[in-house]
Amino acid sequence: MQYTIEQIGIIHSPYTGKEVCPVQGRAAPEGIGRVEVFPEYEEALETIETFSHIFLLYRFDRAGEIQLSRPTFLDDAPHGVFASRHPCRPNSIGMSIVRLEAKKENILEVSEIDILDNTPLLDIKPYIPRFDYRQDASNGWVEGKAWRDKPEGRE
Fold first, then answer.
1. Carries keyword Glycosyltransferase (predicted)?
2. Between 90 and 33, where is the model more confident?
């Protein structure tokens, strides 16, 4: 089965390379960005400013070689790519939660961003704690792993 996903905008951030981009936006609250939604999709942003956080779905357009099992940013042992958030994945789709600071027409100002500058935007969804938070969720293999602000090999 083949399908096509249309780019709906572009994500702007201060991060021009993987070596300076945070692994998770929550670890970099000072990371400020802009989400530019193409004008033909502006109507789809109606009432988005009522949410404090949003999911951004985007294309990992500079991710690198796809490997189905590999070490991750949190662990040197290999894990299946579907059991990790590694950017090198079969469909190259990324997902981040960012704080929505403001909406100005078709531009969303955000913080806590962990996405490279000029990344293609595929979709936006509101983060709704009532639906998205699961109190009984487990951390899987990540449980007990030390947080690294920057993965090894990044400066």
1. no
2. 33
